[in-house]
Amino acid sequence: MCPSMDSTDLITIDPAILGGTPVFKGTRVPLKTLFEYLENDYTLEQFLECFPSITREMARNVLMRILLDECVPWPMRGLLAVHDCASLQQQGWSGKQNDELLRRAAEQFDLFVTADQGSQYQQNLTDAPIAILELSTNDIRRIRVSAPAIALAAATIQPREYVKLMVN
After folding, report:
1. pLDDT digit string (tens) for 73-114?
2. What structural domains does the chain harbor?
């Protein structure tokens, strides 16, 4: 997602439109449709051809740069494959303290995904410079079962927002 935008600029969640399914703003095209197309090896061009009410800019702006914490299993990136995912290790940030880590992450990423259950007690994450999605577990089997909820949380999180997601 473009760092200067929040999801309300891009997405509508209204019970009167497709029962509250998140859709691209000004349309009835579900956001999940873009992700499903890309996950099934369709190109962005093919998606745009099928859904002409969605502009290239609209589609690109919902795709995010996501940083996965060391405590999150790397295979989780496959659940967020339509986004640009990187790990702390790839960035060379292993072992960094939370405040420095979040400052660096905010410069290059839209979302930080962690399973660090103590992070909310170590510092005030509601004032973090980046959106943070905290998963209640790092068990990959449970994360895979909760993939739709994780994808939705990632798509609708606001800049600088902290969301704790209970993973089944």
Report:
1. 999 988 887 788 999 999 999 988 888 899 899 999 999 999
2. 7-61 (1.10.10.10), 64-165 (no CATH)
